[in-house]
């Protein structure tokens, strides 16, 4: 169980600080359950309440600095998602996001970057879905890496570029 003050990753809310652990006073809450009161770091004014024993939402610790550096160092060699069926592409993106795993976000981003380069070579723009899912993946991944590396979230992309020595969209 996490404690007040811990920084965690929580489902679609991204990186959150545990503000409180205990029962909550809400008509919708089960008074016999223990809840996390979470404050998303990158959603201003938002608070999340979730049961400590919630099995439906991914709640995990933020990766360590060493894990973050290993992840970044492996980005160049990371595989894309390998989605062959164009009709299942968006479903693959949703599944990658749902895992809340940094490695899956990297794979998703690589897939979208490759699609973007391929479309640009044919004189086409990125699709709205690709742009939307890339933004989500970057927000979640860069938020977690910012905490792990003690950076501002808007510094993470430049840090990655410098570390792996190549430009990426």
UniProtKB/TrEMBL annotation:
User: InterPro entries of this UniProt entry?
Assistant: CarD-like/TRCF_RID (IPR003711), CarD-like/TRCF_RID_sf (IPR036101), CarD-like_C (IPR042215)
Signal peptide extent: none
Residue intervals of the CarD-like/TRCF RNAP-interacting domain: 1-110
Please give the superkingdom of this protein's source: Bacteria
Kindly provide the name given to this protein in its UniProt entry.
Answer: CarD family transcriptional regulator
Organism this protein belongs to: Candidatus Lachnoclostridium pullistercoris
Upper classification of the source organism reads:
Bacteria, Bacillati, Bacillota, Clostridia, Lachnospirales
């Amino acid at each position: 169980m996490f404690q007040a003050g811990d920084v965690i990753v929580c489902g679609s809310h991204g990186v959150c600080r545990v503000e409180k652990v205990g029962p909550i006073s809400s008509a919708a809450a089960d008074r016999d359950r223990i809840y996390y009161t979470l404050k998303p770091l990158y959603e201003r004014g938002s608070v999340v309440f979730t049961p400590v024993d919630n099995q439906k939402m991914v709640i995990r610790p933020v990766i360590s600095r060493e894990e973050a550096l290993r992840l970044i160092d492996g980005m160049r060699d990371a595989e894309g998602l390998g989605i062959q069926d164009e009709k299942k592409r968006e479903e693959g993106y949703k599944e990658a996001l749902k895992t809340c795993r940094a490695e899956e976000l990297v794979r998703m981003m690589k897939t979208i970057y490759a699609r973007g380069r391929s479309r640009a070579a044919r004189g086409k723009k990125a699709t709205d879905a690709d742009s939307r899912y890339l933004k989500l993946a970057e927000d979640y991944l860069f938020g977690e890496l910012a905490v792990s590396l003690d950076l501002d979230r808007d510094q993470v992309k430049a840090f990655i570029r410098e570390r792996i020595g190549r430009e990426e969209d």
